[in-house]
Amino acid sequence: MRPRTRIPLRSLTVAVISLFTGTGAATAQIYDHPSFNTPYGETGTGVYLVIVNDINDFGGMATFRKAGDVDLGLRASVNEVSGGDVALNGGVDISSQFVEVSDEFPLDVGWVTGFGFGWATGDGSFGILRIPGGVSLARKFRSDDGKWALTPYATPRLALDIGVGGSNTDTRLHFDVDFGLDMQFGASWMLRFGLTVGSNSAMGFGITF
Asked: Among 170, 136, 174, which residue's Cα sits nearest to residue 155?
């Protein structure tokens, strides 16, 4: 009888965990945290305060989006990095809704993807090229008079993070989920709150107009 090949459970567990986890310091160079992505087409400019690296470092983010058959957006951010350095990030958002709320399914769903790059200044700095892909699930609740709307949403996604330069040239697959709430009080502006959990962490809030 041929002997069975046994795969050590401990080794397999360590390999899986290492694939889906990264260093917390890299959060400052992740361009799409929080992503503020919903299934709905959006045209306008957004400005946000962003807190990264487990509530240690602050930054600012700006976005511009244009709704269409495929929704396109640009984003850029500057974050403080522990030690007095900064991270400069930028990227492109691409998304489109493909499921609408119905009697059979209670959520709107859109696919989301894009690409971006972040670089931290200072000694030993390195960049991260990020290519995310996932879905955004949301439900919009409107007032009877149509003057305001609340939209809770969740955006789970996988991302290929490629280290560039410095001492970090790792390529890893990371999993993150954004939880957010959009509060629309007029046709042209809304307040937004977003929280990222998973292999990295961040939160932010701001306004779009």
From this structure: 136
Peptide bond into 34 cis (omega under 30): yes
Closest CA to 86 of 122, 50, 32: 122
Q: How many residues does the chain have?
A: 209
pLDDT tens digits for 118-159? 998 877 678 999 999 999 999 999 988 878 999 999 999 999
Model pTM?
Answer: 0.82
Query: To which residue do tokens 């001492």 refer?
Result: 167
Q: Using alpha carbons only, what angle is made at residue 50 by residues 97 and 190, rounded to the nearest 5 degrees?
A: 50
What is the rounded CA–CA span in Å between residue 28 and residue 26? Answer: 5
* 102 Cβ contact list (under 8 Å, min separation 6): none
Q: Give the closest residue to 30 by CA, choosing from 170, 160, 154.
A: 160
